[in-house]
Specification:
The chain is an alpha/beta fold. It is 39% helix and 28% strand. It has 5 helices and 6 strands. Strands 1, 2, 3, 4, 5 and 6 form a 6-stranded mixed β-sheet that branches. Helix 1 crosses helix 2.
Protein backbone atom coordinates (compact mmCIF):
# COMPACT_ATOMS: atom_id res chain seq x y z
CA UNK A 1 0.00 0.00 0.00
CA UNK A 2 1.20 3.48 -0.84
CA UNK A 3 0.25 6.49 1.26
CA UNK A 4 0.84 10.08 0.24
CA UNK A 5 -0.02 13.56 1.41
CA UNK A 6 -1.15 16.15 -1.12
CA UNK A 7 -1.78 19.82 -0.28
CA UNK A 8 -3.70 21.80 -2.90
CA UNK A 9 -4.20 25.55 -3.25
CA UNK A 10 -6.33 26.19 -6.31
CA UNK A 11 -9.27 23.80 -6.09
CA UNK A 12 -12.64 25.47 -6.61
CA UNK A 13 -15.01 22.48 -6.52
CA UNK A 14 -15.32 18.81 -5.63
CA UNK A 15 -15.14 17.59 -9.24
CA UNK A 16 -11.84 19.41 -9.80
CA UNK A 17 -10.51 17.87 -6.57
CA UNK A 18 -11.45 14.36 -7.73
CA UNK A 19 -9.84 14.93 -11.12
CA UNK A 20 -6.55 16.26 -9.70
CA UNK A 21 -6.36 13.42 -7.21
CA UNK A 22 -6.90 10.72 -9.83
CA UNK A 23 -4.41 12.43 -12.15
CA UNK A 24 -1.81 12.44 -9.33
CA UNK A 25 -1.82 8.64 -9.30
CA UNK A 26 0.21 8.64 -12.51
CA UNK A 27 -1.80 5.97 -14.32
CA UNK A 28 -2.80 6.02 -17.99
CA UNK A 29 -5.58 8.36 -19.05
CA UNK A 30 -7.86 5.37 -19.72
CA UNK A 31 -7.39 4.01 -16.20
CA UNK A 32 -7.81 7.52 -14.75
CA UNK A 33 -11.19 7.80 -16.50
CA UNK A 34 -12.26 4.41 -15.10
CA UNK A 35 -11.18 5.38 -11.56
CA UNK A 36 -13.01 8.70 -11.82
CA UNK A 37 -16.14 6.87 -12.98
CA UNK A 38 -15.87 4.47 -10.03
CA UNK A 39 -15.59 7.42 -7.64
CA UNK A 40 -18.70 8.98 -9.21
CA UNK A 41 -20.56 5.67 -8.87
CA UNK A 42 -19.59 5.54 -5.20
CA UNK A 43 -20.80 9.11 -4.65
CA UNK A 44 -24.11 8.18 -6.27
CA UNK A 45 -24.63 5.64 -3.46
CA UNK A 46 -24.49 8.41 -0.85
CA UNK A 47 -22.22 10.76 1.02
CA UNK A 48 -18.70 9.71 1.98
CA UNK A 49 -18.42 12.44 4.62
CA UNK A 50 -16.95 10.98 7.83
CA UNK A 51 -16.46 14.12 9.90
CA UNK A 52 -17.49 17.77 9.79
CA UNK A 53 -14.73 18.78 7.35
CA UNK A 54 -13.57 15.36 6.10
CA UNK A 55 -14.65 13.04 3.33
CA UNK A 56 -13.38 9.56 2.47
CA UNK A 57 -13.97 8.79 -1.22
CA UNK A 58 -13.15 5.13 -1.73
CA UNK A 59 -13.24 2.45 -4.38
CA UNK A 60 -12.14 -1.16 -4.73
CA UNK A 61 -10.82 -2.36 -8.08
CA UNK A 62 -8.54 -4.96 -9.65
CA UNK A 63 -7.47 -2.35 -12.23
CA UNK A 64 -4.72 -0.91 -10.01
CA UNK A 65 -1.43 -2.67 -9.23
CA UNK A 66 -1.64 -1.95 -5.49
CA UNK A 67 -3.70 0.03 -3.00
CA UNK A 68 -3.09 3.77 -2.73
CA UNK A 69 -4.25 6.15 0.00
CA UNK A 70 -4.03 9.89 -0.60
CA UNK A 71 -4.66 12.33 2.22
CA UNK A 72 -5.50 15.57 0.46
CA UNK A 73 -5.82 18.93 2.16
CA UNK A 74 -7.26 22.09 0.63
CA UNK A 75 -6.40 25.64 1.64
CA UNK A 76 -9.93 26.76 0.72
CA UNK A 77 -13.00 24.62 1.52
CA UNK A 78 -15.26 23.16 -1.18
CA UNK A 79 -18.89 22.08 -1.21
CA UNK A 80 -19.68 18.38 -0.99
CA UNK A 81 -23.37 17.41 -1.07
CA UNK A 82 -24.90 19.73 1.57
CA UNK A 83 -21.66 20.58 3.37
CA UNK A 84 -19.85 23.74 2.26
CA UNK A 85 -16.72 23.40 4.34
CA UNK A 86 -14.84 20.24 3.30
CA UNK A 87 -11.09 20.73 3.52
CA UNK A 88 -9.69 17.21 3.87
CA UNK A 89 -10.18 14.01 1.89
CA UNK A 90 -8.87 10.55 2.54
CA UNK A 91 -8.95 9.00 -0.93
CA UNK A 92 -8.74 5.22 -0.84
CA UNK A 93 -8.04 3.32 -4.04
CA UNK A 94 -8.05 -0.26 -2.79
CA UNK A 95 -6.95 -3.45 -4.42
CA UNK A 96 -9.50 -6.13 -3.38
CA UNK A 97 -8.88 -7.97 -0.10
CA UNK A 98 -5.98 -5.71 0.94
CA UNK A 99 -5.81 -6.19 4.72
CA UNK A 100 -3.61 -3.12 5.14
CA UNK A 101 -6.56 -0.98 3.99
CA UNK A 102 -8.78 -2.63 6.59
CA UNK A 103 -6.25 -1.77 9.29
CA UNK A 104 -5.99 1.81 8.10
CA UNK A 105 -9.76 2.25 8.10
CA UNK A 106 -9.98 0.80 11.61
CA UNK A 107 -7.64 3.49 12.91
CA UNK A 108 -9.82 6.21 11.34
CA UNK A 109 -12.46 5.67 14.02
CA UNK A 110 -10.12 7.53 16.35
CA UNK A 111 -11.22 11.18 16.44
CA UNK A 112 -7.65 12.26 17.30
CA UNK A 113 -6.38 10.79 14.03
CA UNK A 114 -9.16 12.46 12.02
CA UNK A 115 -8.34 15.79 13.70
CA UNK A 116 -4.62 15.38 13.00
CA UNK A 117 -5.29 14.62 9.33
CA UNK A 118 -6.94 18.04 9.06
CA UNK A 119 -4.04 19.95 10.57
CA UNK A 120 -2.43 22.34 8.05
CA UNK A 121 0.94 21.51 9.59
CA UNK A 122 0.63 17.77 8.88
CA UNK A 123 3.75 16.51 7.15
CA UNK A 124 4.34 13.42 5.02
CA UNK A 125 6.64 12.10 7.72
CA UNK A 126 3.91 12.48 10.38
CA UNK A 127 1.37 10.83 8.09
CA UNK A 128 3.69 7.91 7.49
CA UNK A 129 4.32 7.54 11.20
CA UNK A 130 0.61 7.74 12.04
CA UNK A 131 -0.32 4.95 9.68
CA UNK A 132 2.85 2.92 10.07
CA UNK A 133 1.95 2.43 13.72
CA UNK A 134 -1.61 1.48 12.84
CA UNK A 135 -1.07 -0.49 9.67
CA UNK A 136 2.32 -2.03 10.37
CA UNK A 137 3.49 -1.99 6.77
CA UNK A 138 6.11 -0.10 4.87
CA UNK A 139 4.30 2.83 3.29
CA UNK A 140 5.60 4.66 0.26
CA UNK A 141 5.10 8.32 -0.61
Amino acid sequence: MKIKLVKLNNISNYEQWLQQTVDSLGFSSGLNINLLNLLHERDALGSVQISQHVIMPHIVTYEIPESVVIVSQLTKPVKYFTSKDITTAIYIFSYPDDISIESLINCLVDEKIINRLQAPTLSSKELKKMFNLSVGEKNAF
